[in-house]
Amino acid sequence: MHPQEQTIFALSSGRAPSAIAMVRVSGPQAGLALTALAGKIPAARMATRVLLRDGQQQPIDDAVVLWFPAPASATGEDVAEFHVHGGRAVLASLFAALSSIPNLRAAEPGEFTRRAFENGKLDLTEAEALDDLIHADTDRQRRQALRQLKGLLGDKARDWRAQIIEASALIEAGIDFSDEGDVPAELIAPALTKIKALAGEIEEVLAAQGRSERLREGLVVAIAGTPNVGKSTLMNQLARREVAIVSPHAGTTRDVIEVQLDLEGYPVTVIDTAGIRETADPVEREGVRRARARAAEADLVLWLIDAPGEQIIQDGSAPVWTVRNKIDLDQSRAAGPGQSEPDGAALGDPKKSGASNFSISADRGDGLPDLIAALVAFARDYFGAGEGGLIGRVRQRQLLEQTVELLQRSISVIGEGEELAAEDLRMAAHCLGRLLGRVDVEHILDKIFKDFCIGK
To answer: Is 29 in contact with 7 (CB distance < 8 Å)?
Structure first.
């Protein structure tokens, strides 16, 4: 039997032990499984209390079961749900009983959602949004994923694709009636009007998104500088826990340390890098190489110094903020904690492409509220439209950009031949089909669904 024809089951709730656990079964044998364990198939979509028994009629648990016959189910197949007490022994007995039924097997990661996609219960943009919702770490990520899960992008893409097909039909009709005098012009003119309006609408969606797809991945901030300037101390302060070893000895941090933060709903990954200096130690030298590479790839670099005038190394194109640390040890400073250096850029101005200057004590906490506020402002500007955007992934943006390019090209080549314009429109409709996951996407399905958890 083909794997897609087999019936699958998995724990679809939290890890045991728990108060209640939900085990979902999907496929043609779901009704058989329900009958075998519960003794009957209850009324559809009605919670029913039963005593579950295994193949030897030994009791498993006092449970609640539900029955969702196809196609009115989450996967589009027959689905049974077993709501049991969430003890490990209960689940082990239930899994053993289900496994003993022919053609029932444990589900692979994302297999329930993939079956829902293949049965037309959701398109690929909604599946991607569901994956984003599962993996959301911050409230802003959750809200963006939930908005996209409502199918707003998919609905628009279906409407755009229908309009392209209508315009293409007009142009192809013009080709068929090319010997009928004014008929081609009467058909092509409204087609061009539709194409221009459609290209403009998609361009507006693209322009309004800002960097909303980056909200999934988060902002990457690298803490860099020479050894023993307080990088690990600052990392621990931002994380509000000890994630990096703090030592007075230079070269303690040999590798890149990462921590994920939630800054007012914005996902931020802060990386603590090895101190950058010339060294004969091969291990520390490799740490310095990795530190410089990660700093070059970051979206923002906090370069720590402990004395004015220290050299700042900028390997990448990201903004570099100079952070003067250990001000508690310099009693002769004229400026107080949290103030900018006299010749520095405006504190916390996220639109500055050059360096902004801050003065802090990572050990004591002086100046940190101002630095964190500046980071939040930078993140707000960086993510742009953020959660309000329709586009959640780079894949989606690239396909829409290709669609606009093909629509515009169809307009420019219409004078060279209606056949060329019709072919560009066909390719544009194909791009939107790929966006929805309805054509030519087999190569990306495994990549998307393998990131889902088992039972989803």
So the answer is: yes
Both structure tokens of 347 = 């504190």
Locate 135 and state its tokens: 């993996």
Q: With both helix axes pointing from N to C terminus, report the angle between 394-413 and 183-208 in degrees, rounded to the nearest 10.
A: 150
Other C-beta atoms within 10 Å of 14: how many?
13
The strand ranges marked E within 27-129 are 48-53, 59-68, 79-86, 104-106
Strands (E), 113-256: 219-225
Rg of the Cα atoms in the chain: 29
How many angstroms separate the Cα of 256 from the Cα of each of 262, 273, 365, 438?
20, 5, 23, 41
Residues with Cβ within 8 Å of residue 133, at least 6 apart in sequence: 142, 145, 146, 149
pLDDT at 343: 36
Q: Using one digit for the tens of pLDDT, what is the confidence trace for 69-98?
A: 999 999 999 999 999 999 999 999 999 999
Q: What is the pTM of this model?
A: 0.67
Show Cβ contacts of residue 154 under 8 Å, excluding neighbours closer than 6 positions: 123, 125, 126, 436
Asked if residue 71 has a cis previous peptide bond (ω within 30° of 0), the answer is yes
Helix (H) or strand (E) holding 296: helix 282-297
Closest of 224, 217, 214, 211 to residue 321, by C-alpha: 224
